Amino acid sequence: MTFIKICGLFREIDIEYANNLKPDFIGFVFAESSRQITKSKAANLKNKLEAGIKTIGVFVNTDPHEIQDMCTSGIIDMIQLHGDEDGNYISHLREKVSHTIIKALRIKSNTSHDTNKDLTDKQEIDFLLFDTFHDKQRGGSGLSFDWSLIGKTEKPFFLAGGLNIENICEAINKVHPYAVDVSSGVETDGVKDFNKMSLLINKIRLNETGGSE
Q1: Could you tell me the residue range of the domain that residue 133 belongs to?
Q2: In a domain? residue 210
Q3: pTM for this predicted structure
């Protein structure tokens, strides 16, 4: 079974969409982004979210104390590190929180995650996330990468980077991720689009059951 994360929710109507469609995870982006959200806004949205949907906080080079505060406040259920966090940073964070840690690795067109072996093997990391490298954006670029560069990894992983209704099933069937992570692929004019979210989620679930549209 492939789990589904819809990232970059920041409006109350986005939460209504999620409650209706029931992805497994939603993402709150606390890093600089067009989808950036404040702690107070995220807390308000979390309170409106159905209990079965887990929240993932997306951070870039954030002070671990701030992440700890988000965790103890109950705003996020899982942590996604999308910056330059190294092994020492992650060990320090793990001392402060017991929450699941996802470490994003951005893949360039000519390099694989093998160059990040110190992170891919690190015990404190629960999941990896593979995303497209972009020199001006940490994520949400809408650009995909060569999935064959993922290679073999022992850790379960989230797949991100340019995923949309057209390529989502191909991606799942090719690399078998633990979860897919979609943001711009279900947006229109920079905000979440209910119809696109519905089409994508239904397509994944049909693919899982071997059904057809």
Answers
A1: 3-156+174-182
A2: no
A3: 0.92
**Which residue of the set 14, 71, 131, 181 is catalytic?**
131
Asked about 131 being catalytic, the answer comes back as: yes
CB-CB contact of 49 with 18 (8 Å): yes
Eight-state DSSP code of residue 161: S
Average pLDDT over residues 13-38: 97
Q: Is 71 a catalytic site residue?
A: no
pLDDT at 134: 60
Domain count for the chain, please give it: 1
On the 0-12 / 13-18 / 19+ scale of CB atoms within 10 A, 65 is exposed
Q: Considering 7, 14, 71, 181, which one is annotated as catalytic?
A: 7
pLDDT at 122: 82
Ramachandran angles phi, psi of 65, nearest 5°: -65, -35
Asked whether residue 74 is assigned to any structural domain, the reply reads yes
CATH number at residue 28: 3.20.20.70
- For the segment 111-120, the average pLDDT, to the nearest whole number, is 58
3-class secondary structure, 57: strand
Residue 73 lies in a domain: yes
Give the span between the Cα atoms of 213 and 198, in whole angstroms.
13
Domain assignment present for residue 140? The answer is yes
- Nearest Cα to 42, choosing from 72, 81, 15, 22? 15
- Output 153 or 91, whichever has higher pLDDT: 91
Query: What is the distance, to the nearest Å, from the Cα of residue 72 to the centroid of all Cα atoms in its chain?
Result: 20
